[in-house]
Specification:
Shape: globular
Oligomer: single chain
Strand content: 35-45%
Number of helices: 3
Distance between the termini: 30 Å
CATH topology of the largest domain: Trna Endonuclease, Chain: A, domain 1
Order of helices and strands: EEEEEEHEEEEEHEEHEEE
Number of domains: 2
Helix content: 10-25%
CATH architecture of the largest domain: 3-Layer(aba) Sandwich
Structural class: alpha/beta
């Protein structure tokens, strides 16, 4: 997935009000960027961290800039949580995810469960309908394992609800997949941050016992674009 325009380099001044970040550009101007990430972004918000932002000249937007990448411990990390669904959609269309091959129809944002929308609904002749939820992963805590990516980085009632609804789809005879996309390339393993959200960790156990499948891939992150890389070993 290529960025629509050339990214602009700067340094992080601060992130605040959850969805806003001030960035100092190379000419020392400070601009405010939209931070499309509801999580805590643990270990990513160091003062003066190198960042890259995108710019869209759209008068309907309150903020013309969007925070896309932060450099953390020499690793570029994608922090825009809107990116994974776009990237997974591209990957599904060109058959980059072996576990999800063989489906002729790929639909996005399909209503299911209790007033929810699944990220992807896959249909194929002779195959069970497949419900796929996608989560963006950025968390890496050296004290928990320098090569381990974790989710979530804050309490996520919405994420817990999705796991329970995927479990219900399996009970109905359908296939259900939780796909974690790690927006960094310095991890080998994936685990659940149960100390951050015990309810989510419990829901994972329930989902696995129900037959929900877990997939995890990492990404190559560059200032030109983001692409899927390798599957990560899942340690629950």
């Amino acid at each position: 997935m290529k960025f629509k325009s050339q990214l602009i380099k700067g340094n992080l001044v601060r992130r605040y009000k959850r969805f806003m970040a001030d960035v100092r550009l190379m000419d020392n101007r400070i601009v405010t960027a939209h931070c499309a990430n509801p999580g805590s972004m643990i270990n990513l918000l160091e003062n003066d961290a190198d960042v890259w932002i995108s710019y869209v000249d759209n008068p309907k937007r309150k903020l013309m800039y969007t925070l896309e990448i932060i450099r953390s411990n020499k690793t570029r990390v994608g922090v825009n949580t809107n990116i994974p669904n776009r990237l997974i959609h591209e990957s599904l269309k060109i058959g980059e995810i072996p576990e999800l091959l063989g489906y002729e129809s790929i639909k996005r944002e399909v209503n299911y469960g209790e007033k929810s929308r699944v990220d992807f609904f896959l249909e194929g002749v002779g195959r069970r309908d497949c419900y796929v939820e996608v989560k963006s992963v950025t968390l890496n805590r050296p004290e928990k394992g320098s090569k381990t990516a974790e989710f979530p980085d804050s309490v996520t009632k919405r994420g817990t609800k999705h796991l329970l609804e995927l479990s219900q789809q399996v009970k109905k005879g359908n296939r259900a997949v939780m796909l974690y996309l790690v927006q960094r390339a310095d991890c080998k393993y994936f685990s659940v941050a149960g100390d951050i959200d015990p309810a989510y960790a419990s829901a994972i156990e329930t989902a696995l016992n129900a037959g929900v499948e877990l997939l995890c891939y990492d990404c190559n992150i560059s200032t030109d674009g983001i692409s899927m890389r390798n599957p990560l070993e899942i340690k629950i």
